[in-house]
């Protein structure tokens, strides 16, 4: 008999007032089917629309749903970190609140949980503007070069992780780079990371902010800051080891 997982599922919400009811309804339907115990968390990242109010109405009608409100906008990475920190069950799932990814993709992602502790989706058909597809392509190519990354599409807004990862990886980014930081640091620590092909859907309401100039600048800053951290002489050294380079010996190498 296959044991059903206990699942915490959260959504970062920003300008998503129109999509949240549908996403939560589909999530409840999915989790009633595939999960043993579950909770749904909506992280309202100080959204300027009615996302927070809509989330509160949803939570008031279902005890499985709770809402966390940020008093100030903390960015995509901040919303992700809040969702992870407040998830109580063994398997933590995250899906963006704009409905470009369908929560039912989590079913096949959770199906491989016996093999991976972190599962990320890769979009094999992208229904975006040419500009956004180009930016995504350049972004992933740069990460492969800068971090020796093997991932095809490292920053999609849908992922599954085992709760134990929380205490193994220090995630610092507040920009959309946060998903890549999670996957790259997991890979470097030897945590099994899997990729599952997913579909994408057009955003019907509003517009995404991941490729705004502000988020692009923040992402670039986080990319180089995290690269400096990872490739430093002190990052994640084995216990009891330090890396001292004798300058005279180094010159002879």
Please name the fourth-level CATH homologous superfamily.
Answer: Spore Coat Polysaccharide Biosynthesis Protein SpsA, Chain A
| Proportion of strand residues | 15-25%
Compressed to H and E, one letter per element, the order equals: EHEHEHEHEHEHEHH
| Main sheet record | 7 strands, mixed
Your description of this structure?
The protein is of the alpha/beta class. It has a single domain (7-234), classed as Spore Coat Polysaccharide Biosynthesis Protein SpsA, Chain A. It has eight helices and seven strands. It has helices spanning 20-34, 51-60, 75-85, 105-110, 130-147, 178-188, 213-230, 247-252; strands at residues 7-13, 38-44, 65-69, 91-95, 118-123, 158-162, 193-198. A seven-stranded mixed sheet has the order 3-2-1-4-6-5-7, sandwiched between helices. The longest helix is centred in the middle third of the chain and has 18 residues, at 130-147. The protein is globular and about 60 Å long. The mean pLDDT is 89.
